[in-house]
Write a structure and sequence with these properties.
Keywords: ATP-binding, Cell membrane, Membrane, Nucleotide-binding, Nucleotidyltransferase, Transferase, Transmembrane, Transmembrane helix. The chain is of the alpha+beta class. The chain folds into 2 domains: 88 residues, no CATH class; 158 residues, DNA integrity scanning protein, DisA, N-terminal domain (YojJ-like (1), CATH 3.40.1700. Helix content is 60%, strand content 13%. It has a 7-stranded mixed sheet with strand order 2-4-3-1-5-6-7, sandwiched between helices. A hairpin with a 6-residue loop joins strand 5 and strand 6. Helix 2 runs antiparallel to helix 3, helix 6 crosses helix 8 and helix 6 runs antiparallel to helix 11.
Length: 275
């Protein structure tokens, strides 16, 4: 079927509207629950005022809005720098780009295991969260940003009793320590409250709400546990901890592969960019 020029124009207009709608939706998702949400609303108000000024030919308002155009791009980049960086990082983690940019997951696991072992030997409590597919930005914002490469030495330092950041959880994303001293939700299960302390309840609470994995080091016993999908495996040795974390990473890879296979051809990049 041959499309007429009018039909082609309608399709282009429709594609234009859909792309703009998707863009604004993704921006709303990126700033949802963050301090940038108010700035985003303010920016939309300025855009709306500019449209109204043009529609009703409000000369003074239109002049002010036009004068601001030269600084809008710079202001947008400055105000939304964290969200833009996060969006670009998400795009880089799509299936095809990740094959070129894949981090050394097993190297990260080794650092986590070494850090947990050293904390256990010193009887220093620890709460190490490994982010998977569900973003943990809301929990990251309750703590102090670190943005440093994962290492056993850094984890041990953060959880040392003399550290100002030893209370709360450390959140890892890919091969980086994103934040420390983060506050996690406690499990609402009454049996959990009776059986475990605050660290273990926080680990279970987060894994009940998200798909993250949490490594817990007990301050009282020095035992190491892993919480995943609302279940807790306790008293793990170094080898068992490494095997359990490796299994969780494999589960993540299998889930991502299953999601990609469920998409129609050409839908991988769209699905991941929207995630």
């Amino acid at each position: 079927m041959t499309l007429t020029p009018v039909h082609k124009l309608w399709l282009l207009d429709l594609a234009d509207i859909v792309l703009v709608a998707v863009l604004f939706y993704r921006l709303l998702i990126l700033v949802k629950g963050t301090r940038s949400a108010q700035m985003y609303v303010g920016l939309l108000v300025i855009v709306l005022v500019g449209i109204i000024a043009r529609e009703f030919d409000l000369i003074a308002v239109k002049w002010i809005v036009d004068s601001l155009k030269t600084v809008w791009l710079i202001a947008f980049v400055i105000l939304f720098q964290p969200e833009l960086r996060h969006a670009l990082a998400q795009f880089g983690r799509t299936r095809y780009f990740r094959s070129f940019l894949r981090g050394d997951h097993y190297g990260v696991l080794g650092e986590i295991v070494r850090g947990a072992e050293q904390l256990a030997q010193r009887r220093h409590g620890g709460l190490i969260v490994v982010e998977r597919n569900v973003g943990l930005r809301n929990f990251v914002e309750t703590g102090t940003r670190i943005d440093a490469k994962v290492s056993a030495e850094l984890l041990v330092t953060l959880f040392s009793p003399g550290s100002l950041l030893h209370d709360g959880a450390v959140i890892l994303r890919e091969d980086a320590v994103v934040a420390a001293a983060c506050i996690l939700p406690l499990s609402a299960n009454p049996r959990t409250a009776a059986m475990f302390g605050t660290r273990h309840r926080a680990a279970l609470g987060l894994t009940e709400e998200t798909d993250a994995a949490v490594v817990v080091v007990s301050e009282q016993t020095g035992g190491i546990s892993v919480a995943f999908r609302g279940k807790l495996k306790q008293q793990l040795s170094e080898g068992e901890l490494r095997s359990e974390l490796a299994r969780i990473f494999r589960v993540r890879a299998e889930e991502e592969a299953a999601q990609v296979e469920a998409l129609p051809e050409g839908g991988e990049a769209t699905e991941k960019a929207a995630g």
